[in-house]
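User: What would this chain look like folded?
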Amino acid sequence: MTGKVQPQKLKKRIFKSYVTSTISISMVLFLIGMLGVVLLNAERLAKYVRENIGFTLVLNENIQEQEITDLMKSLEATDFVKSVEYIDKETAAERLTKELGEDFSGFLGYNPLLSSVDVKLLADYATPDKLVILEKKFMEYPQVKEVSYQRDMVNIINENVKKIGFVLVFFSVLLLFIFFALINNTIRISIYSQRFIINTMLLVGATDSFIRAPFVKRSISYGVVGALIANLLVFVLMLSYAGELTGIINTEDYKIFGLVFMVVLILGVLISWSSTYMAVNKFIRMKFDELFY
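Assistant: Here's the prediction, encoded as structure tokens.
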């Protein structure tokens, strides 16, 4: 009876070790997948930030509707404008009242604001040098009284976009080392519980490659299953927050997801294989007395 209980306990322990290893690898590969999505969309993110930079064209007082229409068409026809939005005096007053939390026009007795047009630029034109040129160009329109944009904000955004790119690359390399270490330690712990089995195989004359083979195959299966789970989680997460990520991450760009899928799968297999290979070699070289420490 006792002889049957011991193998069952061993099987349960090994099974738990398999499950723990697979879950741990899945979570780490999931983080790698998310990092990959962010990196591949970094340029898109920078573009999204730059395209939220824009001008406010304050229009002349008592401007005619036809003049506004002509201005809008003229702006939309340019090769540097992404979008335009006309804001009349009443809408501008409502927005300012909402921001201030009180009705300023009631206090003044009239609405001092003028109609305006908000212009969003294409990312390539949202640089300090080009913005200065565009400011002069907008002032040439007869309907425009004043042009304004946040100069300091533009400089800060452009500087930060460059810094973010560098930081992303640096942390990506750093995190890959950390992820490798985590998967490596997970697999080492899994193999540690079977160190006496490895020693027994050595005692009966098994070769190093023969001993490694089942561990490597099993570890590669960890990596494949873990990668599939991780990719599924990344895909589900991206689809779940597709609305919130509009403009930042293109959830319809399946090339990016395909590339992330392949990278996660390859990394899962390579890291699992290399970690297992090194861990098994370590226990193969150990003397029997060292297995107890």
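The radius of gyration is 31 Å. If you want, I can go into more detail on any region.
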